[in-house]
Amino acid sequence: MSLSATDATTLERRRAYYARIAEHGLTPLWEVLGALVPPQPRPKAVAQHWRYAELREHVLEAGRVITAAEAERRVLILENPGLQGQSCITPSLYAGLQLILPGEVAPAHRHTQSALRLVLDGEGAYTAVDGERTTMRRGDFIITPAWTFHDHGNPGDQPVVWLDGLDIPTVRFFDAGFAEKLAAESQTAIRPEGDALARYGSNLLPMDYAPAPAAPTKVFVYPHAKTRAAMQAIAAAGHPDPHLAHKLRYVNPATGASPMPTIGACTQWLPAGFETQPLRSTDATVHVCLEGSGEAYIDERTTFRFAENDVFVVPSWQSLRLRANRDTMLFSFSDRPMQQALGLWREQRL
Ligand code: GTQ
């Protein structure tokens, strides 16, 4: 007897059976097998575009609603509409826009979640990581690896907004979250600004430094000016990849691995007029437009016309095709290093 022809008596008998076994903490696999082991990814996350020009006033309004000290972190979460109530932009990653006003401090704490920052708007704030400050300039990519103390402050005269990316949903999935506050509001500087970059990010390493393979980098700022100069030189050399134009990944310079074990980040340069071929991969990816503008075609169904500081997310296994109106620079991040470590990551060039 085929399943579709299952008669009412059989269905009723099954329902009663399911009810009885439920009392023993049992449920039937055959009712859910197709959903549990799909032939290919079926993301609940959806493609979504956040236009900074529309968000900016709402972010600034948060500054009149609550202080940075009271909020601890004054952030508007970019929540994927397909994952409502979960504070996720992808199943494994979180993103938000953090605001810090002149004179404010976001107090020092640490947690097992890893974080990245991408500075978008305003200048003059700093992030301090493990006793060293870095001044936040637009486009700078800054990381705070798991369990490093960090605080943010703004001694300048402009509101400063940056994008936060954290592995909060991943740590929640493992129930492995720990956090604590530092007794003091801000960390005491124990090294001068630029020290980590000089020691670990200058094609040099201290003589006795031997990091474990998955250790996060001690370089906690990747200055935009350096990345942009590199990308311009690479673009000037020509030969863009048909699917990527010019795309490179940020690395831990001591190991060649991603800067942090759970989150990978990339920078991409698309010459004016360039159109990529569609590409899909299993790592849902958050993109941020740092410069230029263009269009993103997701699965050849959804079109996003993005401008500077816009954020858009591409779900797992949905294709991305990009078109640049002008020379365009994108930043992106995803859980690719985790998927690769677990042997899960797949990519398809279409
Ligand atoms: O800056 O430490 O967006 O702990 C969310 C949680 C930022 C931070 C967020 C955090 C932080």
Describe it.
The protein is α+β, with helices and mostly antiparallel strands. The chain has a single domain, classed as Jelly Rolls. Helix content is 19%, strand content 30%. The chain has eight helices and 22 strands. Strands 1-19-16-21-14-13 form a six-stranded antiparallel β-sheet. A six-stranded antiparallel β-sheet has the order 2-3-10-5-8-12. It has a five-stranded antiparallel β-sheet with strand order 7-6-9-4-11. A hairpin with a 2-residue loop joins β6 (126-129) and β7. The radius of gyration is 23 Å and the shape is globular. The relative contact order is 0.14. It binds 2,5-dihydroxybenzoic acid. 2,5-dihydroxybenzoic acid binds at residues 73, 75, 96, 98, 111, 115, 150, 164, 166.
Features:
350 residues; Jelly Rolls; six-stranded antiparallel β-sheet; alpha+beta; binds 2,5-dihydroxybenzoic acid; 30% strand; globular
Low-confidence segments, ≥5 residues, pLDDT <50?
Answer: none
Tell me the strand percentage band.
Answer: 25-35%
Helix content: 10-25%
Structural class: alpha+beta
Biggest pleated sheet = 6 strands, antiparallel
Number of domains: 1
Give the total of beta strands.
22
* Morphology: globular
Catalogue the ligands: 2,5-dihydroxybenzoic acid
Please provide a brief summary of the model:
It contains 8 helices and 22 strands.
Topology of this structure?
Layout: H1 8-22, H2 33-36, E1 48-50, H3 52-65, H4 68-71, E2 75-77, E3 94-100, E4 105-111, E5 115-121, E6 126-129, E7 132-135, E8 141-144, E9 150-153, E10 160-166, H5 168-173, E11 179-181, H6 195-200, E12 221-222, H7 224-236, E13 246-249, E14 264-270, E15 279-281, E16 285-291, E17 294-298, E18 302-306, E19 311-314, E20 320-324, E21 328-334, H8 336-341, E22 347-349
Antiparallel strand pairs: 1-19, 2-3, 3-10, 4-9, 4-11, 5-8, 5-10, 6-7, 6-9, 8-12, 13-14, 14-21, 15-22, 16-19, 16-21, 17-18, 17-20
This protein binds 2,5-dihydroxybenzoic acid.
